[in-house]
Design goal:
Elements (H helix, E strand, L loop, with lengths): L3 H6 L1 H10 L3 H44 L5 H32 L19 E6 L11 H8 L2 E2 H8 L5 E2 L2 H19 L4 E3 L4 E3 H7 L11 E2 L4 E3 L4 H5 L5 E4 L5 E10 L18 E11 L4 H19 L3 E5 L11 E9 L4 E10 L3 H6 L1 E4 L7 E2 L1 E9 L2 H9 L7 E2 L5 H4 L3 E2 L7
Parallel strand pairs: 4-9, 8-14
Antiparallel strand pairs: 1-11, 2-3, 5-7, 6-7, 9-10, 10-16, 11-12, 12-13, 13-16, 14-15, 17-18
Helix pairs in contact: 2-3, 3-4, 5-12
Length: 430
């Protein structure tokens, strides 16, 4: 949600932000309507205030006349007429405000100045780590998974439909090992409070983080109860302090949460459908942070570094991309995508997206903090990132660590969690 002050005092800045996203042409009618509604709303409020002042003056004159024994019927009639007029004006002002907010809630966030303008082709690789394995002779992860019995795509389809996966045996153990290891590192080393949130949330919660109303088609909805399966733990965790005022001493706050994630991927038909690259339900450890506005840029770098640490310890070559404005998510002001190289499919796979939302989500969810005991509350800045998202990490591990004997080696950090140093064919398993 945008500050009305921006609409009123810097309409050109808002238009420029939409232009940098490549969305100005599509949003121009809404922006024009927005400016008109704000002018109408303010004019109506002024009329209400003027008529209330006139009514108050009339009431005072009525009291004076009655005290002096004079007739005040004409002023009383005028007061009633003013009351009716004020009620009508207030109704119009409320309607204008509702219409204005309906437009505001559909407008994406303003990206930060260091975010390049343009679309996906304007994304910038800011750093790389590790040496990608050559793709020659490397099997895609779906062949490895079938050969080692790690996941069952056919039965996933049978029980739930396309886009769902059943992990089995060593594969199920690997998923559990990854999730436990990620949570342990973030909690013990990076200072995150572990949270185990619900996987079902209200409409208000989805609206607070920006999933609704714009992306309702991508959500799995429980229609009879007006509830939604979460697309990411960002949604419930960011909303933990909705409609609350924090103390400045509590910031920054950091939370790590594992949840299953549910996405209909309504606009992604035909994209990356082989194997487990794009599915409707997946597991993820999410990192969420609250910060002061002054500290949020540094917090984004810190958060991104926490996700990178995991990739380095897994030994997976990766790159960090700064997304251009047109490729930046609806609620985000700046986003780094972390992509690992999967040689079996010869692709860079996004496994983490680390973003700062400035006060965009906090305005929608009304999350504030008080800088000092008597200060006026300010909106916090929210951040989040995947740390990490499965199943693409699984796909990258299966492809990067393939061995000549048909096994898949596991990074040393996972050995105590997985109970083994490698994934092997069942007949060769110890």
């Amino acid at each position: 949600m945008h500050d009305l002050k921006l609409v009123r005092e810097q309409p050109d800045a808002l238009r420029e932000a939409m232009r940098r996203r490549g969305a100005l042409d599509a949003l121009a009618p809404q922006l024009d309507r927005l400016a008109s509604l704000e002018q109408e709303r303010r004019a109506l409020i002024q009329q209400v205030e003027e008529q209330k002042a006139a009514r108050n003056a009339g009431s005072a004159e009525v009291a004076r006349r009655k005290k002096g024994g004079e007739n005040a019927d004409d002023l009383i009639a005028q007061g009633r007429a003013l009351g009716e007029s004020i009620a009508a004006l207030e109704a119009r002002a409320t309607a204008a405000d509702d219409a204005l907010r309906a437009i505001l809630i559909e407008l994406p966030n303003v990206t930060l100045p260091d975010v390049p303008e343009g679309g996906e082709d304007a994304n910038v690789v800011v750093r790389e780590w590790g040496t990608p394995r050559r793709a020659d002779g490397v099997q895609p992860h779906w062949d490895v998974g079938a050969r080692l019995g790690l996941f069952d795509l056919e039965r996933g389809v049978k029980v739930s439909g396309s886009g769902f996966v059943v992990y089995r045996g060593q594969g199920a153990r690997l998923v559990r090992a990854l999730l436990n290891w990620c949570l342990d590192v973030h909690a013990a080393e990076h200072g995150y409070e572990e949270v185990w949130p619900p996987a079902v949330v209200t409409r208000a919660t989805m609206t607070g983080t920006g999933q609704l109303p714009k992306f309702e088609d991508d959500a799995y909805a429980i229609r009879d109860d007006d509830l939604f399966l979460i697309p990411t733990a960002e949604v419930p965790v960011t909303n933990l302090y909705r409609d609350e005022v924090l103390d400045a001493a509590q910031l920054p706050m950091a939370f790590a949460a594992y949840t299953p994630c549910f996405r209909r991927e309504a606009g992604s038909a035909g994209k990356d459908t082989r194997g487990i690259q794009r599915v409707h339900q997946f597991d993820k450890v999410e990192l969420v942070r609250y910060s002061t506005p002054e500290d949020s840029a540094a917090q984004l770098e810190l958060l991104t570094g926490h996700a990178e640490t995991l990739l380095q310890r897994l030994g997976l070559p990766y790159r960090v991309k700064l997304l251009a404005a047109g490729d930046t998510g609806f609620s985000s002001a700046k986003t780094y995508d972390l992509e690992v190289y999967a040689p079996g499919v010869d692709k860079w796979l996004e496994v983490s997206s680390c973003s700062v939302f400035t006060d965009f989500q906090a305005r929608r969810a009304n999350i504030r903090y008080r800088p000092a005991p008597k200060d006026k509350p300010r909106f916090v800045h929210t951040l989040n990132g995947s740390g990490l998202a499965l199943p693409r990490i699984v796909a990258a591990l299966l492809e990067h660590y393939q061995q000549a004997d048909g096994s898949v080696a596991l990074p040393p950090v996972l050995h105590p969690y997985a109970g083994t140093d490698a994934l092997r064919p069942a007949a060769a398993a110890p």
